[in-house]
Amino acid sequence: MGISPLCCTSCLSICFVVVLVVANFGIMMQGTNKFSIIDRRVKASVKYFDVPPIKNKACPNGIDAVWLWVNGSDPVFRKALEENGRKGGAGRYRDYNTLQYSIRSVYNFAPYIKNYYIVTMGQIPDFLNTSSLTFKDYKLRIVDHKEIFPNNKDLPVFNSNALEVSIHNIKNLSSCFLYLNDDMLLGKKLKPEHFCRKDGKINIYHNGWNAPEVERMKHNLWHKSVGTSNELINNKFHPKDSTYKHPYVSHHCYFFKTDTLKEMEEKWQEQYKQTRTHKFRLGNDLAIPFLHGAYSVESNKGVYVREKWYYYGLVDNNRTNNLKIINGIKKKKPQCICLNDGLDDKDETNMSNAIDRMTLFLETLIPNPSPFEKLEAN
């Protein structure tokens, strides 16, 4: 059956009215104060958890969040990298916006954390609204490497181990903090009790893999640095058994006590100084997540807990592999997610598709922005 001209005219009239209403609504929204929009998001998140900043026996001054971040595509950074004798290895320094979703995850799933610190080499993430880094009791601060290194002559460094031995030097850092690499994010609500015990100790999570791994130490710098750290622990707590084993700390969203980190540096000052001078990873670096975990347990400040509460995925150019990661996260609903970069930039098309697919998934997983983000243009 055909449609009469009169009917088409009526349809066009209705469409015009709808477009006019939508346009007027858009203009009204443009006049809305952006903070009122953020305010609703913040209230919704806080109301969901209904918690103030956390203070307990383990963390009397509350819990903060700290990220290490670098934009590996920044020309200034790339130049500094090459001037210090390193080319390639883009994956270790690549940025594909996982930091944005990592911050979102803490904001949405751990709203009792009020202070955010991003440790960078003078870089600022593009998604941040630098004029809005404070909102009510939520604050975000960019921390330059120069602030946390006792000797700026050691800079620049491109070694996460050198940065990790220095993060406790962040000014005004709380007694406890959640420490994340930019490829780590929370996957669901995280209660402080996951880390903080009623007796004042903290939980140190592992999955049963013990150090030292002697054979792996021969070929892998990370395993060697863990072995180096285990040796320090044994020299202090097990002087008669240099091969005493301690569990590898799970590669997840780490939980550190600031006082413990400072105490560790006092005991191993030379090793800390040495690690800070290493611009790139070496086998005799300190492995702080492992060292902090073992030291906490040996000094009766922590308890080992064998539990796999995280999901680790190596994101690469392969669509099947990445869909497996996405489906695994959906199925297991882990509290912490680590999306390690295994992308191959020699195949730019598939790499770009992989990044887009993972970004879309993260947007679906954590759609609610943090109050520190730039708002989308209307």
Notes on the protein architecture:
The protein is α/β, with parallel strands linked by helices and 378 residues long. The chain has a domain at 40-45 and 54-310: Spore Coat Polysaccharide Biosynthesis Protein SpsA, Chain A. 42% of the residues lie in helices and 17% in strands. It is built from 14 helices and 12 strands. The chain has helices spanning 5-30, 34-49, 75-83, 90-93, 98-109, 145-148, 160-164, 214-217, 221-237, 258-267, 269-276, 288-298, 319-332, 348-365; strands at 63-68, 115-120, 134-135, 138-144, 176-181, 184-186, 202-211, 246-249, 254-257, 302-306, 310-315, 336-341. The strands form 3 sheets. It has a 6-stranded mixed beta sheet with strand order 3-4-2-1-5-9. It has a 3-stranded mixed beta sheet with strand order 6-12-11. Helix 13 (319-332) links the parallel strand 11 and strand 12. The protein is globular and about 60 Å long.
Helix content: 40-55%
CATH-derived architecture of the domain at 40-45 and 54-310: Alpha-Beta Complex
Shape: globular
* Class from helix and strand fractions: alpha/beta
* Beta strand %: 15-25%
Give the mean pLDDT: 86
For the largest sheet, list the strands in their spatial order.
3-4-2-1-5-9
**Which residues sit in consecutive blocks of at least 5 with pLDDT less than 50?**
1-50
Largest beta-sheet details:
6 strands, mixed
CATH class of the domain at 40-45 and 54-310: Alpha Beta
Distance between the termini: 41 Å
Radius of gyration over C-alpha positions, nearest whole angstrom: 24 Å
